């Protein structure tokens, strides 16, 4: 097959595995043939089948799987022999795309009952062996003959000729002029599924009575068709909440609660027909008793079993029948009937980025009554470009590797910043390895983002191009709740959307700061003070709430977690959490606070409601990675080339190094926020810091800047010199030394616990003075202490995870003003996997920061070089091989090759020379993808060349 005929020209959303999570995907549709019609998909309905097969509920799903069989669109191109359709026609495609076209059912245009089985629109296997891909995509190619057959245009003779031709047949329906495409889509499954059995069992008889079980996507269409046929319609439901909708909105004549025995008794033997649309398990005998003699019960739902007493069927000569969708003739008939009678399904139109959340809502029956994806507006090739370079984890191994994806287009309130630095947080390792079981792959970590504004939206007023800014652990929130209004978005009542691995408001998955750039709402950008190193700047987030206070008077043992979940933000007794720094490269039309070139940071969150009162958003802040944004997308973090965030989220002060700014956006704000909340900025007070890592060393720095007397509490004597001499702590105590701990008894006003490992709490609580405050920012597996440790001395235990936009900006300015810089180790992104392992072992002082800008530039250059149709310069190849080799175990052949080439620079016995035509000398190199395009070197070294003159990379183990 020529490269001209196969192009990944179709944009789609696909599930990759039984998790069922959908994400952007590209593939090729077949090339337009002379008898084909290509249609641009404008809308696609969301069906229960999409959920079932995305999650492999029947064990036969074929991945990658593109769902969608309620397709509506517009003809955009026709083949040279097409005569029945023209560009601009409105058409639809339903649940199946082919059949044998020879059996009695196909000849009767009831193809759904094809004796050989119909080929479904998605997840089916076509006659050529290809896997069918559905309507969650930008376009589809169908055969004109089939469109014409479906529309009833061709004569019988032409139909026979079409069958004999053996063409691929994908059934296409003409949508009547003027009928909305968004409304037409659900008719192609939900509509036809009830219309077909209603017509087959002659329910279009005015005056007859119909019962409809269930009021969802299928049920509400059954009610609409029943009323259009002149039937007396009774809705049978378990939920009284649906009564008003059934009677007033849909026009049903009666509504019965099936659990009410009196209502059911009154309906005994009164119905001619019943359509059962419920998929949940339920008894059948009570409903069969409602049928008249010779009544018909039609099942279109899918419970796990159908079970009833024979008497329910035999006595009264009743019939129970089943149905799934319909043939081409009845489907076209239904479309025309709906247009003529102005019947429209009740729908909720969504962008494709929201589809994951929509599927979950659909399962919970949280929709009236059908989701329809606006494919045309939300899946647009002009707005989707893989322009962001990043490093991502593909699976729970957590191994990161190069990845390209698209950031969202700049909005009017957005800031686009070039990421210059991104801190490495423990959360990056946790989420990359799916430790909590909710990671969404590919996952781009990083929520300690520092960078420079490169573009701002039209309504952004707080940032300008060139500003230094940061983005932390969240990138979105509701911006409406009490907490968001108080700029405490991390406590958003709807949940903050995390900077990576979150699901944004549009349904997309957020991607973090291990990337080249990011786009965020200006609310979630923090200004990094002038002169403060971007590498030293970076953020964190998360929480739940209803009570302002809880007084626990119970002396008996009892769990605390259920009560803690009831507290509003700032409720007493609380429990940390990303770190992106960069440069603004573009801003939305409404962005006023940033401009291109600004240095900015993105922290642990990238969105919130921006409307609630508190800093801790009542709807929940949207975390920078692994969060779910307001559009339903999963946020992706800062291990990427760029990021797009609302301008709300942080300006990095001018002059502050971006590399230093990145860690402030998680490690810094995580300790600064509770220190300010508990008024630790009181000179002369005493502070104990448990743990001396990324968070702990910042707590020491802030404590000294506040004028506190700081004691470091550690299990390791090796950290003493660093704590006292480098960080300036006043005291250092080994916690296993009982005498040292005793000497510290009741001497501390505050303690900040940054340790994530399990440890006892009572010994530390005994160090607090009366009314002392213990703040937990680490994440041990549990918090457990004796009530006396809290009650006697009126002590307080509080927790914190990152901070709101106001306090984050305040912290950045404070660091710049007081020349506070985190201690960092700057690394290239190629080193990130080793860095994550070192971080877990506490082998870093005190924060890794990825130099995103420099290392992704090298990656992009090398990728473009390898993809180019030209030969390597040996020096460039040398650098490239080391670049890739850093990701390969030393015992592999590739690593040996790299070492050999390196040795050629320093050892006279090894020579690297260009080759021209003799590819036999490099046959082993073809094992590696980088050499697929014109290998341009010949390695000649006596120990690596066999007797045939061919390279043998395994000959010399001494390399």
UniProtKB/TrEMBL annotation:
<dbReference type="Pfam" id="PF08240">
    <property type="entry name" value="ADH_N"/>
</dbReference>
<dbReference type="InterPro" id="IPR011032">
    <property type="entry name" value="GroES-like_sf"/>
</dbReference>
<dbReference type="InterPro" id="IPR013154">
    <property type="entry name" value="ADH-like_N"/>
</dbReference>
<comment type="function">
    <text>Oxidizes mannitol to mannose. Provides the initial step by which translocated mannitol is committed to central metabolism and, by regulating mannitol pool size, is important in regulating salt tolerance at the cellular level.</text>
</comment>
<dbReference type="InterPro" id="IPR013149">
    <property type="entry name" value="ADH-like_C"/>
</dbReference>
<dbReference type="InterPro" id="IPR036291">
    <property type="entry name" value="NAD(P)-bd_dom_sf"/>
</dbReference>
<keyword id="KW-0560">Oxidoreductase</keyword>
<keyword id="KW-0479">Metal-binding</keyword>
<dbReference type="GO" id="GO:0009809">
    <property type="term" value="P:lignin biosynthetic process"/>
</dbReference>
<dbReference type="GO" id="GO:0008270">
    <property type="term" value="F:zinc ion binding"/>
</dbReference>
<keyword id="KW-0520">NAD</keyword>
<comment type="similarity">
    <text>Belongs to the zinc-containing alcohol dehydrogenase family.</text>
</comment>
<dbReference type="GO" id="GO:0046029">
    <property type="term" value="F:mannitol dehydrogenase activity"/>
</dbReference>
<dbReference type="InterPro" id="IPR047109">
    <property type="entry name" value="CAD-like"/>
</dbReference>
<dbReference type="InterPro" id="IPR002328">
    <property type="entry name" value="ADH_Zn_CS"/>
</dbReference>
<keyword id="KW-0862">Zinc</keyword>
<feature type="domain" description="Enoyl reductase (ER)">
    <location>
        <begin position="20"/>
        <end position="373"/>
    </location>
</feature>
<protein>
    <recommendedName>
        <fullName>mannitol dehydrogenase</fullName>
        <ecNumber>1.1.1.255</ecNumber>
    </recommendedName>
</protein>
<dbReference type="Pfam" id="PF00107">
    <property type="entry name" value="ADH_zinc_N"/>
</dbReference>
<dbReference type="InterPro" id="IPR020843">
    <property type="entry name" value="ER"/>
</dbReference>
